[in-house]
Design goal:
64% helix, mainly alpha, 134 residues
């Protein structure tokens, strides 16, 4: 986390960075242990593109679960939307780990911190004429 010194985080964001780095390590390690990265170069643009589209496919499944109000078939006590969002997060954290983004948590926290200051993210600006409605 040397990069953190160059980019100080406001209170609360350091915990986000730390937690996201733990998730990155855990998701990538699980994927490696399952053999998903054997003989694969994550920096190959086709591999990266494929992994990104797999994350998109999880979002499409989440949308379908939300659209139909379905329970998940593997975790039937959970909504399909929740489980597919988790699958997408796993894929994103795994790819970040595979690409060697050792400070992905710091980048995520810095982006959240930046977004908190954006005019187009403020409620009053979004409610104004021409503001982002969603």
């Amino acid at each position: 986390m040397e990069q953190m010194a160059e980019h100080p985080l406001l209170p609360g964001y350091g915990e986000i960075a730390y937690s996201a780095d733990l998730l990155t390590d855990a998701c990538h390690l699980a994927s490696k242990r399952a053999g998903w990265w054997e003989g694969i170069n994550p920096r190959d643009p086709y591999v990266t593109a494929t992994k990104l589209m797999l994350a998109v496919s999880e979002l499409a499944e989440a949308m379908e679960g939300a659209r139909k109000g379905l329970k998940d078939d593997k975790l039937p006590d959970c909504e399909m939307l929740e489980v597919e969002l988790a699958d997408c997060a796993i894929r994103v954290f795994d790819l970040a780990g595979a690409l060697g983004y050792t400070n992905f948590g710091g980048t995520l926290a810095r982006k959240m911190q930046f977004n908190a200051t954006r005019a187009d993210h403020k409620v009053e600006n979004r409610a104004a004429e021409g503001g982002k409605k969603f």
